[in-house]
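Retro notes (design track)

What went well: tokenization of the new backbones is finally stable.
What didn't: we kept losing track of which sequence belonged to which structure.
Fix going forward: every design gets posted as structure first, then sequence, in one message. First example under the new rule, 319 residues:
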């Protein structure tokens, strides 16, 4: 029992050290079933892992939608993940990963589950400037920054769900935003998100709110940009608060996660008064408690532009 509690405590404390746990799985190989690569997803997104139950096909469903399963009374849609990313499973779709993501529950069919590994976010690099497809958001170096390290492709679930037409990832309707969000003159929102789809939706939302912004792709990039803006402001006899009204950050990002970015801001005398809003697909009370523990001013789940606008207004009013 003590060992189990220790493991739970260690997992809960990962967010205080720029670390996370990744579930590694395989989807199959190429058309010949060869070169089966490793893929990964944050453990915090996984609700459970089960042997593939009986799937009921749905008439008129989209390509790669296998159907639905009845799991303990809940009807869950099942997506053919190997087919989505262009892999061919050699032994079949044997495992169902049940995920909670962006206010939705869905199952991803995979060939095999490999392991759970504990990584530092510095081991994860953006895949945006690589040859990786649009469904891969980053590459994890499983053995650290060493020659010949095993690599795992971290899937961009936001993009996959949007491509599949899943609910919750809709284009922004300016009519639903309400009144414009008013910032202090001369200031902007500094935003950070590693997903191409999420950045597009955030940009649409902020534009509909009438909010000027600077968009970055990782927590590290946002932190460096914040420091550069502070230095530029000081050279003009101003403060960083005259330039940045609020920081809007995702949680899962290569190099530096949103927990670490928030902690860096809130532990700095120079930046501590800047409101930080966490905007994440990681839901649940545990994650929200972690968000509060690092000093964030608010948490809003992805992606609803009306909720985001309301949260930004509240965070700005509470400065």
């Amino acid at each position: 029992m003590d060992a189990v509690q220790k493991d739970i405590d260690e997992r809960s404390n990962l967010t205080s050290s720029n670390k996370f746990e990744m579930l590694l799985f395989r989807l199959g190989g190429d058309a010949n079933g060869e070169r089966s690569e490793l893929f990964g997803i944050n453990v915090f997104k996984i609700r459970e892992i089960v042997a593939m139950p009986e799937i009921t096909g749905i008439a008129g469903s989209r390509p790669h939608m296998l159907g639905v399963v009845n799991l303990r009374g809940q009807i869950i849609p099942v997506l053919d993940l190997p087919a989505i990313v262009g892999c061919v499973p050699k032994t079949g779709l044997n495992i169902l990963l049940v995920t909670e993501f962006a206010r939705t529950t869905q199952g991803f069919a995979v060939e095999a589950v490999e392991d759970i590994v504990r990584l530092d976010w510095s081991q994860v690099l953006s895949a945006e400037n690589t040859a990786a497809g649009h469904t891969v958001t980053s590459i994890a170096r499983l053995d650290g920054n060493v020659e010949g390290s095993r690599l795992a492709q971290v899937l961009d679930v936001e993009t996959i769900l949007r491509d599949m037409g899943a609910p919750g990832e809709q284009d922004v309707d300016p009519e639903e935003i309400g009144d414009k969000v008013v910032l202090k003159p001369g200031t902007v929102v500094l935003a950070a998100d590693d997903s191409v789809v999420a950045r597009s939706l955030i940009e649409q939302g902020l534009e509909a709110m009438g909010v000027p912004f600077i968009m970055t792709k990782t927590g590290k990039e946002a932190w460096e940009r914040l420091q550069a803006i502070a230095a530029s402001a000081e050279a003009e006899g101003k403060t960083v608060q005259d330039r940045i009204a609020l920081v809007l950050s995702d949680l899962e990002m290569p190099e530096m996660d949103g927990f670490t970015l928030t902690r860096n801001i809130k532990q700095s005398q120079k930046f501590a008064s800047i409101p930080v809003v966490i905007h994440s697909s990681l839901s649940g009370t545990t994650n929200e408690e972690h968000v509060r523990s690092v000093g964030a001013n608010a948490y809003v789940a992805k992606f609803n532009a009306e909720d985001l606008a309301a949260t930004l207004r509240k965070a700005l009013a509470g400065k």
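Added context from the reviewer: The radius of gyration is 20 Å.
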